Amino acid sequence: MEDLFIQITKAVVAGLMMGLVFGLVALGLTIIFGVMDIVNFAHGEFLMIGMYAGLLTATTFHVDPLVGLPVAAGVGIFLGLACYHGLVRFLLKGPMVAQLFGTFGLMLFLRNVALMIMGAEPRSLHQGILVGKSFILGPGIVIELTKLAAGVLSLAAFAGTWWLLNRTKIGKALTATALDGQAARYMGIPTEKMNAFAWALGGATVSVAGALMVNFWPVDPNVGLLFTMIAFATVALGGFGSVPGAALAGLIVGMMINIAPMWDACVNCLGIESLKGGGMHQFKYSFVYLAYFLIMVFRPRGLFGWKY
Amino acid sequence: MALLKVKSLDMTFGGLHANRDISFEVADGELLGLIGPNGAGKSTLFNCMAGLHAPTSGEIYFRDRNVTCLKPYQMARLGLARTFQVYVATGDLNVLENVMVGSFLRTRSRVKAKAKAEGLLEKMGLAGLERARVANLPVAAQKRVVMATALATDPVLLLLDEVAAGLNPSEIEQMMEVIRWVHGDLRITVILIEHVMELVMNLSRRVLVLDSGRLIAEGEPKQIVRRPEVIKAYLGERYVSEHFVGAS
Amino acid sequence: MEVLKTAFDFSDFPRIDIWVASAVAVALLVFPTLPHSSFAMATMIQFLMFSVYGMGWNTIGGYGGQVDLGKAQYVGIGAYTTAVMMIRWDVPFWFSLPIGMGLAVGWSFIIGYPLFRLRGHYFAIATIATSLVLKDVFESWSFIGGARGLKIPLKGEMPNFLYVQFREDYYYYYIMLGFFFIGLFYINWFRHSRMGFQLRSIKDNEEVARSLGIDSHWAKIKAYAVATAFVAAVGSFHACYNFNIEPEDVMSLDLSVLIALMAMLGGAGSLFGPIIGAAILVPMKNYLGAWFGARAGLAGLDLIIYATIIMLIAAFEPRGIWGLITRLRERRSN
User: Fold this and answer.
1) ipTM of the predicted assembly exceeds 0.90
2) Would you say B71 and C210 are in contact if contact means Cβ atoms under 8 Å apart?
């Protein structure tokens, strides 16, 4: 029994830490959606680029991956702005179908450029001050420091974003544009600049999330789609446009993905041989997609959504 | 025979009590006007009858069937058609195709649907405009396309939503002719929401007045306008007390 | 009878369009008799397949206005039904084809009912979600070979019309050409039919459509089923043409996107749009891929070009090439 408790706690903690990262990933998507009603299919690709930014900074300059974080943020800002000015600006004028395809094209573009430059081989980074170390939460409950740091730093990024949105002038202007674009325009808030800002912020947060995962998630150009789908499910659950929703939903999704180890733990402990096996592991992402579907059909507003 | 019966209809949206305890009947073959100041709840009542909202309480009977909770497409199939105020045509369907969508309700055959649509367009004075884009037409013509489309569904009851809005006097005259034709020749029962008094007063035999969600008066047009409560609804308490001696 | 007359009614196209289309049809009919490389033949077959995929997608995505990015799951159902029935129970293609379509359509009704409560990008994402889930299921299902897929064995001597297995590609070509023409005439009927009008009305303004007696939810589900039938049929063919299927091939998101993309590029919501789209993108993909792929390291370039085209079209002419042609014509006549 005690062993079961330990296993489950480990899985729960790991799930929560990943959940915080997922929340950060979803944050950018929900902000962009809140401000201009556009859904960014290339969101996962931004994350992938952030991962490479972190990876390459660490390997090229022989520094700790933590140094890669601000680099990723910078890259994310640049990427967000470039995409906005180069493409999204035009898409906003068109019908929704066009927006869908525009960002989809962006996704294909970024993915294949990365494929061409980086090659398809997944890379991992096993160096850095955090690697190989663990944090001991309690008797037998051990969590890898890299994952813990990812979770904690995600929380910090969340806090930073919250502070930015609620305590700075420009952040409040952004929130205002999200709540009521027209009214914001009447108040003199320049919508164009706010849109660009949303993309810069969205790009930065998700890039940082990518860089945070470099120590424990293999980096390859195809990783984007999975995270785009996870981000969508998270945003749907939390409510399109809601920042706290993204955080809470991220935690839930993180836990959902970790059902597999929890299930294994229970099954092992209770000795039910027949239920062991890879089933749960293979379907862990399918659960997320299924969850998205169910949420959208039965409660499209999600937890805190105000935009559906 | 009462074609439409509304009993104690109540409609609340969140905090807004849009319709309060409204009851009335519409006889087969009537031409009924529905008037009232802005915000009185006319559109809401209209939408409840058409099936867009299910009333919070109360009942609606159409052709002796309880239709309270039916959806718009079900109401249309039963013979209730309505026009829309602001019709945003995105340009995929031309005038003829628009009307054909209506006639397809009653037939599967494209040939028949087309014939019916063409016939209606001709009667509405729109012959020759079949291939035009609705959005390119002048307002008066657009309204007639919308009416033709509704008529193509072979309704027994037609709800007209402010069809005279935005028309100049001669266009209003023409619209009145069309409505007279629909009511007289096609024998369709008509309920009109209107702000253009000239149209309502000249066409309707009976008028219902709404104010603040309640039905405050019912009767013949000429008599209705003299009633103090109606004048008060439009012009306010002071006007009534200043101009009506002994009104109470 | 009226159905047939409508299916052949192209009277709303200007004369020149009908001439061009007829010329193309003749060219398609005689193509195999002209000298060609096997690569060209394979490209043509693919073009036909994607045209039919696109025509099907067009019913719900073009005329219906609901962008569906999950059609690949039905390709998979079609392909696997044919493959499994052929391998395990020796069922000829012509029997497994309708069964596969039936299964796919049945599944489409099951998920269509909740799916169409959604609209716009939420709908699009949900279609991706369902497709990925089904792909995962197929990849774990040992009965149908899991992720490794299925190899379809030869059933006797080729040419084999019962099981649709041939050595020479032109047999495959003509079968697919048959599908192509059937599909084309069906869609021509469709756009003139009650269902077609209803869908277009829904796309214009759903509320108005409902007030005209259209059960919009059900109409969309029906259109989705039609699209599914098209796509599953080509899937079944794919199994016979390729002799080898796996979920990554027939059920991937990339396939779903390509289908939608070609229809959109050519012009969603128009009769010839999907065909134009396929005519441009399929050869481009194949020839660019061959040319650039030969030089190592540039393998992804064709997709980059694709992606750029998508972005340009989305930004500047969302109605695709056909939309561009229509726009230019309207401007000229004004």
Assistant:
1) no
2) yes
